Amino acid sequence: MATLPTAIVFGGSGLTGSSIANALLERKEFQVKVPVRPSSLDKPSTVDLRQKGAIIIPFDLVGSTANELQELITGADTVISAIVWEQLHQQYKMVDVAKKVGVKRFVPCDFGTAGRRGVRKLHDLKLDIRDYVKASGIGYTFIDAGFWYQLLLMCTNEKQTSYPWLYEDSRYVWNGGLVKTAGIDLRDVGQFSARIVADPRTLNQYVFAWGLEVTQQELVKYARKYGDPNVEIFPKSTDDLRSFIAGAEDMRLVYCHYQHSMWILGENTIEKAKLPEFGGALDARELYPDMKIRPIGDYAREFYKK
Ligand SMILES: NC(=O)c1ccc[n+]([C@@H]2O[C@H](COP(=O)([O-])OP(=O)(O)OC[C@H]3O[C@@H](n4cnc5c(N)ncnc54)[C@H](OP(=O)(O)O)[C@@H]3O)[C@@H](O)[C@H]2O)c1
């Protein structure tokens, strides 16, 4: 059997990373290497990937030197980064090393929703990294995705979220809830990404992977149908969001910025993602019309069993 090209998935034990690594292993077009911090070697997602054939490499990206990173990346054809959002700056050294050792395609950690510069701090950071990748001259693919169904659905009990504040915040309905936004099942982020990184058409392109578009009014219907028919919904305005943003920090601030982009400005749609000022995305659904999209209704039934 001919040797498969190698893909390294940084953050491969994480939510996005394991979705991608699993799909890559399933499709068998790459040998998959996953660097994980020594403290994560026995994490269930790491154990699962190892069992499925991933090569797990103990590696602490944050504490690593350029030489250690170079040793790790040498020989890789494709490098995919799906690291935690607080460590995105670590990607600058990844890009330098990837260029030095001749990586053919670098996929930075985007996997967020579509949007312009200047609305979300986290998105701006990611756009800075995209600029750095482009300037480096290495091959790349930038992948954004719809907002995960796992975060779009409104919580009807506390067990449905690991962030206590999200129990109520998930039921804030902005300006009547008629703006549509693109969503995707987290598992389909990996399915799309595995196709995208093996596809010559997506080299040096920006791709938007999405499942469907949905409004908050539709999300309320799912919450009432499958969760709790009497669940309380909180109507909110743009001014409310501004004051939340002023008082929020860490993950809640990131979430508020996403809410602003998606539900107030309506930035996160396939139509917008394709615009030049949003990066001129290729539509993953058009590239892979055979890909079976998981419907949000199916996931809602699963989600509201919790
Ligand atoms: N579209 C959406 O709806 C959506 C939703 C959420 C996130 N995202 C985006 O998806 C991307 C990946 O996020 P994620 O939520 O999938 O990541 P994650 O699961 O939180 O973290 C990924 C990996 O980073 C490592 N890590 C975690 N905390 C760390 C720390 N403090 N220091 C160093 N490494 C640490 C862990 O790897 P090891 O321990 O194995 O080393 C972890 O498995 C981000 O760009 C994020 O913005 C998009």
Automatic annotation (TrEMBL):
Keyword Transmembrane helix found: no
Keywords: NADP, Oxidoreductase
Origin superkingdom: Eukaryota
Example GO molecular function: oxidoreductase activity
InterPro entries: NAD(P)-bd_dom_sf, NmrA-like, NmrA/Isoflavone_reductase-like
Signal peptide start and end residues: none
Residue ranges annotated for the NmrA-like domain, each copy included: 8-230
Name this polypeptide is given: NmrA-like domain-containing protein
Lineage: Eukaryota, Fungi, Dikarya, Basidiomycota, Agaricomycotina
